[in-house]
Amino acid sequence: MRHRAIFCGLFAAFAVYSSYVYTAGTETGHIAPMNDAERRGAEVFQQYNCVACHQFYGLGGYMGPDLTNVISNRGAGYARAFIMAGTAAMPNLGLATDEIDAVIAYLAFVDKTGRYPAENYDVQWTGSVAYQDDPQ
Ligand code: HEC
What we know:
It contains 5 helices and 4 strands; from the N terminus they run ααββαααββ. The protein is mainly alpha-helical. The protein has a single domain, classed as Cytochrome c-like domain (Cytochrome Bc1 Complex, Chain D, domain 2, Orthogonal Bundle), CATH 1.10.760.10. The chain has a two-stranded antiparallel ribbon. A two-stranded antiparallel ribbon has the order 3-4. The N and C termini lie far apart (46 Å). Bound molecules: heme C.
């Protein structure tokens, strides 16, 4: 009987801790959902397979730089110039003007979702991460 009580106690602690760890910090209410232009940009980003060479939050191909915060770090005009003309290292993929507008809107949307690499964060006693400048 005592073993069952210990098991139930440990199982309840495991369940509570797991549900906390897997849900803490996953609220996205402070980011407005994608509008039509941003969604179109996400499609363009997939269609031209930009992720073959670029990353968001460090995930993707590694030929080109991470694009998570390219809009706030470098500006929309800078990003637009690369996409319009290409460089010696990045091919000019021949996007139409409306596709470029959409992909810039999408990059601006991604930029609002967070910072990469992460800055100003604390690791809490639970092992999850809390951002000091989190707008929530
Ligand atoms: C074949 C690989 C490749 C593909 C595909 C590619 N890029 Fe690039 N991109 C690069 C490389 C390499 C650079 C760095 C170029 C340089 O500095 O001359 C770059 C630079 C950029 C930059 C400037 C980033 C910075 O921080 O300087 C932006 C913005 C960008 N690419 C957007 C895109 C978008 C949007 C697409 C899809 C439509 C795309 N790229 C597809 C390779 C690629």
